[in-house]
Amino acid sequence: MTLLKTVIAFVAVLAASLAAAQAGESIEMCGSAPYYPSEYTCYGDETPMLCPHVYGRPTYPCSGACYSPSMYQCCSGQLHLLPAQTGAFRLEVHSLDEQLHGRIAEVCNLQFHVGDEAETCVYCFNAPPQYVCSTYQNETVLLPSGSMSVDVPGGQYWYVDPNNGRLRTTAAGKAAGPERQLAGKNVTVYQEGYFSYDGSPFWLACKESGRGQLYGIFVPHLLDDHSNCVTIKLAAVPTTEPKEGAYSYT
Protein backbone atom coordinates (compact mmCIF):
# COMPACT_ATOMS: atom_id res chain seq x y z
CA MET A 1 0.00 0.00 0.00
CA THR A 2 1.39 3.42 -0.93
CA LEU A 3 1.85 6.20 1.61
CA LEU A 4 -1.02 8.18 0.02
CA LYS A 5 -3.42 5.24 0.28
CA THR A 6 -2.35 4.64 3.89
CA VAL A 7 -2.96 8.29 4.80
CA ILE A 8 -6.38 8.32 3.12
CA ALA A 9 -7.43 5.14 4.93
CA PHE A 10 -6.18 6.50 8.28
CA VAL A 11 -8.05 9.77 7.81
CA ALA A 12 -11.23 7.85 6.97
CA VAL A 13 -10.98 5.75 10.15
CA LEU A 14 -10.11 8.78 12.31
CA ALA A 15 -13.03 10.82 10.97
CA ALA A 16 -15.44 7.97 11.58
CA SER A 17 -14.17 7.48 15.14
CA LEU A 18 -14.64 11.17 15.90
CA ALA A 19 -18.19 10.96 14.55
CA ALA A 20 -18.93 8.00 16.83
CA ALA A 21 -17.62 9.89 19.84
CA GLN A 22 -19.73 12.92 18.99
CA ALA A 23 -22.80 10.69 18.64
CA GLY A 24 -22.34 9.46 22.20
CA GLU A 25 -21.74 5.80 21.30
CA SER A 26 -20.68 3.57 24.19
CA ILE A 27 -17.11 2.29 24.25
CA GLU A 28 -16.56 -1.48 24.47
CA MET A 29 -13.43 -3.51 25.17
CA CYS A 30 -11.52 -5.88 22.89
CA GLY A 31 -9.10 -7.49 25.32
CA SER A 32 -7.45 -4.43 26.84
CA ALA A 33 -8.25 -2.14 23.90
CA PRO A 34 -11.29 0.20 23.95
CA TYR A 35 -13.25 0.66 20.73
CA TYR A 36 -16.48 1.93 19.21
CA PRO A 37 -18.52 -1.01 17.77
CA SER A 38 -19.71 1.08 14.83
CA GLU A 39 -16.11 1.76 13.80
CA TYR A 40 -14.26 -1.47 14.67
CA THR A 41 -14.94 -5.20 14.94
CA CYS A 42 -13.30 -7.31 17.64
CA TYR A 43 -12.13 -10.72 16.42
CA GLY A 44 -10.93 -13.70 18.46
CA ASP A 45 -11.23 -14.72 22.10
CA GLU A 46 -7.77 -15.84 23.24
CA THR A 47 -5.88 -13.12 21.36
CA PRO A 48 -8.45 -10.43 20.50
CA MET A 49 -7.75 -8.22 17.50
CA LEU A 50 -9.41 -5.03 16.31
CA CYS A 51 -10.03 -4.34 12.64
CA PRO A 52 -11.46 -0.99 11.50
CA HIS A 53 -14.51 -0.28 9.40
CA VAL A 54 -13.32 1.64 6.33
CA TYR A 55 -15.82 3.67 4.33
CA GLY A 56 -18.66 2.03 6.21
CA ARG A 57 -17.46 -1.54 5.58
CA PRO A 58 -15.78 -3.94 8.05
CA THR A 59 -12.30 -5.29 7.43
CA TYR A 60 -11.21 -8.78 8.47
CA PRO A 61 -8.11 -10.31 10.12
CA CYS A 62 -5.51 -12.36 8.27
CA SER A 63 -2.26 -13.34 10.01
CA GLY A 64 -2.21 -10.22 12.15
CA ALA A 65 -3.25 -7.80 9.39
CA CYS A 66 -6.66 -6.36 8.51
CA TYR A 67 -7.90 -6.54 4.94
CA SER A 68 -10.83 -5.41 2.84
CA PRO A 69 -12.91 -8.31 1.43
CA SER A 70 -13.74 -6.04 -1.50
CA MET A 71 -10.17 -6.36 -2.80
CA TYR A 72 -8.49 -9.30 -1.07
CA GLN A 73 -9.13 -12.81 0.18
CA CYS A 74 -7.28 -14.64 2.96
CA CYS A 75 -6.15 -18.14 1.95
CA SER A 76 -4.14 -20.24 4.44
CA GLY A 77 -3.01 -17.09 6.21
CA GLN A 78 -1.91 -15.34 3.01
CA LEU A 79 -3.56 -12.34 1.35
CA HIS A 80 -4.39 -12.60 -2.34
CA LEU A 81 -6.19 -10.22 -4.67
CA LEU A 82 -9.72 -11.22 -5.58
CA PRO A 83 -10.25 -12.69 -9.05
CA ALA A 84 -11.62 -10.46 -11.78
CA GLN A 85 -15.34 -9.86 -12.13
CA THR A 86 -16.76 -12.06 -14.89
CA GLY A 87 -20.39 -10.99 -15.22
CA ALA A 88 -22.52 -7.87 -15.51
CA PHE A 89 -22.56 -5.52 -12.53
CA ARG A 90 -23.75 -2.22 -11.14
CA LEU A 91 -21.56 0.27 -9.27
CA GLU A 92 -22.23 0.88 -5.58
CA VAL A 93 -20.71 3.79 -3.66
CA HIS A 94 -18.87 3.31 -0.35
CA SER A 95 -18.46 6.64 1.41
CA LEU A 96 -18.30 8.37 4.78
CA ASP A 97 -20.93 10.76 3.40
CA GLU A 98 -24.28 9.27 4.42
CA GLN A 99 -25.99 10.94 1.45
CA LEU A 100 -23.76 8.98 -0.94
CA HIS A 101 -23.01 5.73 0.90
CA GLY A 102 -24.82 2.77 -0.65
CA ARG A 103 -25.97 4.73 -3.71
CA ILE A 104 -25.83 3.17 -7.16
CA ALA A 105 -24.02 5.07 -9.92
CA GLU A 106 -26.23 6.03 -12.87
CA VAL A 107 -25.56 7.22 -16.41
CA CYS A 108 -27.13 10.32 -17.93
CA ASN A 109 -25.72 12.67 -20.58
CA LEU A 110 -23.09 9.95 -21.15
CA GLN A 111 -21.66 10.60 -17.66
CA PHE A 112 -21.78 8.59 -14.45
CA HIS A 113 -23.42 10.32 -11.48
CA VAL A 114 -24.48 9.62 -7.90
CA GLY A 115 -26.66 11.54 -5.48
CA ASP A 116 -30.30 12.44 -4.90
CA GLU A 117 -30.71 13.83 -8.40
CA ALA A 118 -28.86 11.09 -10.29
CA GLU A 119 -30.91 9.24 -12.90
CA THR A 120 -30.44 6.71 -15.68
CA CYS A 121 -31.23 8.17 -19.11
CA VAL A 122 -32.07 5.69 -21.87
CA TYR A 123 -33.17 5.62 -25.50
CA CYS A 124 -35.13 2.86 -27.25
CA PHE A 125 -37.21 4.59 -29.91
CA ASN A 126 -36.77 3.29 -33.45
CA ALA A 127 -35.13 0.11 -32.15
CA PRO A 128 -35.24 -2.89 -34.54
CA PRO A 129 -38.42 -4.97 -34.03
CA GLN A 130 -36.59 -7.85 -32.31
CA TYR A 131 -35.85 -5.53 -29.37
CA VAL A 132 -38.93 -4.88 -27.21
CA CYS A 133 -38.39 -1.66 -25.27
CA SER A 134 -40.78 -2.59 -22.45
CA THR A 135 -38.65 -5.63 -21.53
CA TYR A 136 -35.68 -3.55 -20.36
CA GLN A 137 -35.39 -2.57 -16.69
CA ASN A 138 -33.32 0.48 -17.68
CA GLU A 139 -30.78 0.29 -14.86
CA THR A 140 -27.15 1.36 -15.31
CA VAL A 141 -25.35 -1.94 -15.88
CA LEU A 142 -21.72 -2.44 -16.92
CA LEU A 143 -19.69 -5.37 -18.25
CA PRO A 144 -16.07 -6.02 -17.17
CA SER A 145 -14.87 -5.84 -20.78
CA GLY A 146 -15.54 -2.10 -20.91
CA SER A 147 -18.98 -2.44 -22.50
CA MET A 148 -22.31 -1.26 -21.19
CA SER A 149 -25.16 -3.80 -20.98
CA VAL A 150 -26.97 -2.67 -24.14
CA ASP A 151 -28.43 -4.18 -27.32
CA VAL A 152 -28.00 -1.19 -29.64
CA PRO A 153 -26.05 -2.21 -32.78
CA GLY A 154 -22.47 -1.01 -32.44
CA GLY A 155 -22.66 -1.23 -28.66
CA GLN A 156 -21.78 1.34 -26.01
CA TYR A 157 -18.71 1.53 -23.78
CA TRP A 158 -17.61 2.93 -20.42
CA TYR A 159 -14.22 4.61 -19.97
CA VAL A 160 -12.24 7.17 -17.99
CA ASP A 161 -11.73 10.47 -19.82
CA PRO A 162 -7.93 11.01 -19.78
CA ASN A 163 -8.38 14.79 -19.95
CA ASN A 164 -10.12 15.21 -16.59
CA GLY A 165 -10.57 11.73 -15.10
CA ARG A 166 -14.36 11.67 -15.48
CA LEU A 167 -16.06 8.26 -15.66
CA ARG A 168 -18.33 8.30 -18.70
CA THR A 169 -19.68 6.34 -21.67
CA THR A 170 -19.36 6.58 -25.41
CA ALA A 171 -22.35 7.56 -27.52
CA ALA A 172 -24.58 4.60 -28.36
CA GLY A 173 -23.81 2.72 -31.56
CA LYS A 174 -20.32 4.19 -31.95
CA ALA A 175 -18.26 1.05 -32.45
CA ALA A 176 -15.28 3.07 -33.68
CA GLY A 177 -13.70 6.33 -32.55
CA PRO A 178 -10.99 7.35 -30.07
CA GLU A 179 -13.17 6.82 -26.98
CA ARG A 180 -13.81 3.21 -27.99
CA GLN A 181 -10.07 2.56 -27.64
CA LEU A 182 -10.27 3.69 -24.00
CA ALA A 183 -13.04 1.25 -23.02
CA GLY A 184 -12.19 -0.28 -19.64
CA LYS A 185 -8.57 0.89 -19.93
CA ASN A 186 -6.56 0.86 -16.66
CA VAL A 187 -9.59 -0.34 -14.67
CA THR A 188 -9.64 -3.61 -12.73
CA VAL A 189 -13.03 -4.90 -11.58
CA TYR A 190 -12.68 -7.38 -8.72
CA GLN A 191 -15.25 -10.15 -8.24
CA GLU A 192 -18.00 -8.53 -6.13
CA GLY A 193 -15.28 -6.10 -5.10
CA TYR A 194 -13.71 -2.78 -5.90
CA PHE A 195 -13.82 -0.99 -9.23
CA SER A 196 -10.19 0.08 -9.24
CA TYR A 197 -8.38 2.54 -11.51
CA ASP A 198 -4.63 2.03 -11.89
CA GLY A 199 -4.47 -0.07 -8.71
CA SER A 200 -6.39 2.33 -6.45
CA PRO A 201 -9.98 1.84 -5.25
CA PHE A 202 -10.38 5.56 -4.50
CA TRP A 203 -12.48 7.89 -6.65
CA LEU A 204 -13.90 11.39 -6.21
CA ALA A 205 -17.58 12.31 -6.22
CA CYS A 206 -17.71 16.00 -7.18
CA LYS A 207 -20.77 18.24 -7.18
CA GLU A 208 -21.93 19.30 -10.61
CA SER A 209 -22.15 23.09 -10.67
CA GLY A 210 -25.73 24.32 -10.35
CA ARG A 211 -27.16 20.78 -10.25
CA GLY A 212 -28.02 20.41 -6.55
CA GLN A 213 -27.21 17.00 -5.06
CA LEU A 214 -25.73 15.59 -8.26
CA TYR A 215 -22.15 14.33 -8.21
CA GLY A 216 -19.90 13.35 -11.11
CA ILE A 217 -17.36 10.56 -10.64
CA PHE A 218 -13.65 11.20 -11.25
CA VAL A 219 -10.20 9.63 -10.88
CA PRO A 220 -8.46 11.82 -8.22
CA HIS A 221 -5.02 12.27 -9.81
CA LEU A 222 -6.50 13.18 -13.22
CA LEU A 223 -8.67 16.00 -11.84
CA ASP A 224 -7.08 19.37 -11.05
CA ASP A 225 -9.84 20.93 -8.93
CA HIS A 226 -10.86 18.83 -5.91
CA SER A 227 -13.13 21.47 -4.37
CA ASN A 228 -16.70 20.30 -3.71
CA CYS A 229 -15.49 16.69 -3.93
CA VAL A 230 -15.58 13.79 -1.46
CA THR A 231 -13.48 10.63 -1.61
CA ILE A 232 -15.44 7.47 -2.35
CA LYS A 233 -14.87 3.87 -3.35
CA LEU A 234 -16.82 2.03 -6.03
CA ALA A 235 -17.72 -1.65 -5.75
CA ALA A 236 -19.16 -4.08 -8.28
CA VAL A 237 -22.61 -5.46 -7.39
CA PRO A 238 -23.38 -8.43 -9.65
CA THR A 239 -26.62 -8.45 -11.63
CA THR A 240 -28.49 -11.56 -12.70
CA GLU A 241 -31.35 -10.29 -14.84
CA PRO A 242 -30.53 -10.42 -18.58
CA LYS A 243 -32.65 -7.33 -19.31
CA GLU A 244 -31.61 -5.27 -16.28
CA GLY A 245 -29.70 -2.91 -18.56
CA ALA A 246 -31.07 -0.83 -21.43
CA TYR A 247 -31.34 -0.78 -25.20
CA SER A 248 -28.99 2.23 -25.08
CA TYR A 249 -27.97 5.04 -22.71
CA THR A 250 -28.02 8.74 -23.50
TrEMBL record:
Tree of life domain: Eukaryota
Any one GO molecular function term: carbohydrate binding
Leader sequence residues: 1-23
Pfam family, any one: Carb_bind
Ranges in a coiled coil: none
Ranges of residues in domain Endo-1,3(4)-beta-glucanase 1 carbohydrate binding: 29-79
Assigned keywords, A-Z: Signal
The protein's name: Endo-1,3(4)-beta-glucanase 1 carbohydrate binding domain-containing protein
Higher taxonomy: Eukaryota, Fungi, Dikarya, Ascomycota, Pezizomycotina
